[in-house]
Write a sequence for this structure.
């Protein structure tokens, strides 16, 4: 069993609009491929994003995969697989906004992001930014649409799904703050973690991960940094 959040989950994990009650997304495809590699069945357990690590630790599921950044702080409390995706941070503003193209331009601005993310860490470490935290992705972009904040900073797959596709918003500037997603396990589950890491490495070598990312328009040169061909 793996844990994920489906609220505002495009393109990670979200309800299939053509088949209500079923879920699609690039991480759904990855979970199915891992299960196939390991010869097991997979089942998703839905939890709020910022509760995934605590829920993993208390045994609600066996692994957590949902755009979880393998930060140094998290590595102190859970085990991580080999990385499966390279992300960076993207700034989104309203369509008619000008003058914001990089992190330095956010000084003195109200900026929304998702709680518990690398984006939150970056924003809090920067000087003079009024950081607004939301429990779900969709609320940050809604606050931007409604003029409650001046910008949103979130990972590139999220910004592509919610910023680039919204006619009221636009993504600006070059992405920054590169990092990686990995699958989280309880500290006592090293053997299971190693088995899943091995499956991911096979998928990197045989092109299966690349094919998944091309399907979801996520394949870019950053992925070569973790051996995806």
């Amino acid at each position: 069993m793996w844990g994920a959040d489906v609220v505002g989950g495009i393109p990670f994990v979200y309800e299939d609009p053509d088949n209500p009650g079923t879920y699609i997304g690039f991480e759904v495809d990855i979970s199915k491929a891992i299960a196939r590699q390991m010869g097991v069945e997979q089942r998703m357990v839905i939890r709020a994003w910022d509760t995934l690590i605590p829920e993993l630790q208390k045994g609600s599921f066996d692994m957590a995969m949902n755009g979880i950044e393998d930060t140094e702080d998290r590595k102190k409390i859970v085990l991580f697989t080999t990385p499966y995706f390279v992300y960076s941070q993207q700034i989104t503003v309203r369509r008619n906004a000008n003058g914001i193209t990089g992190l330095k331009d956010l000084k003195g601005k109200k900026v929304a992001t998702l709680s518990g993310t690398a984006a939150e860490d970056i924003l809090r470490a920067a000087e003079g930014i009024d950081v607004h935290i939301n429990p779900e992705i969709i609320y940050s972009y809604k606050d931007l649409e409604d003029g409650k904040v001046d910008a949103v900073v979130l990972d590139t797959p999220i910004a592509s799904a919610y910023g680039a596709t919204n006619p009221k918003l636009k993504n600006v500037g070059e992405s920054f703050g590169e990092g990686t997603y990995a699958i989280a396990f309880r500290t006592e589950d090293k053997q299971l973690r190693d088995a899943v890491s091995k499956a991911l490495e096979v998928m990197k070598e045989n092109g299966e991960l690349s094919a998944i990312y091309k399907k979801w328009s996520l394949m870019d040169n950053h992925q070569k940094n973790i051996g995806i061909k």
